[in-house]
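WARN no homologs supplied; continuing
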Amino acid sequence: MSTEPRPRPPARDCDHRVTVIAALLLAACAAALAYVLLGGHHGPVECESDAGAPSRAVPA
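OK structure emitted
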């Protein structure tokens, strides 16, 4: 065995964590946009049978 100390691995740059967080945020935004654009999100739909019925909203 050698008595020389093993060299330390190179340290990560200071901005590595920020880069990873930014990449995850970008991926989440892209996934949400794709979900909406591909029709995964539907707004409130009013049924035809409820069109003449009074609103169920609680008056303020």
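Helices lie at 16-37.
OK
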